[in-house]
Amino acid sequence: MTEIDVHLHVWDPARAPYDWLGPGLAPIDRVMRFPDVRPALRAAGITATVLVQAADHDADTDHMLDAARDAAV
């Protein structure tokens, strides 16, 4: 059976601005990539994900598309 995480965000503040992200959200106030979440996904038995934008602008869209292209759960 395929187990799907239907709402996964990745982000990289060096590639795109995220107005909602900041020191008040430690420990996630950092780059969040698929390799960062992959162990938790595998431990939960997740075999697929749906990537969702972390911000509504072209820079994040470009980052999201690159991340999707480079990742496999």
Helix content: 25-40%
Largest sheet: 2 strands, parallel
SS element count, helices: 2
The gross shape turns out to be: globular
How much of the polypeptide forms β-strand, as a percent range? 5-15%
Question: How many E-type strands?
Answer: 2
Q: What low-confidence regions span 5 or more consecutive residues with pLDDT below 50?
A: none
Rg (CA only): 13 Å
Average pLDDT confidence is 92
Category from helices, strands and their pairing: alpha+beta
Secondary-structure element series: EHEH
Number of domains: 1
Distance N to C terminus: 15 Å
Order of the strands making up the biggest sheet: 1-2
Q: What are the key terms here?
A:
73 residues, alpha+beta, two-stranded parallel ribbon
How would you characterize the overall build of this protein?
With 73 residues, the chain is of the alpha+beta class. The protein has one domain. It is 32% helix and 12% strand. The protein has two helices and two strands; from the N terminus they run E-H-E-H. It has a two-stranded parallel ribbon with strand order 1-2. It starts with a strand and ends with a helix. The mean pLDDT is 92.
In brief:
The chain has helices at about 35-45, 60-70; strands at about 5-10, 50. The protein is an alpha+beta fold and about 70 residues long. It has one domain (about 5-70).
Write the layout of secondary structure elements.
Blueprint (H helix, E strand, L loop, with lengths): L3 E5 L25 H10 L4 E4 L6 H13 L3
Parallel strand pairs: 1-2
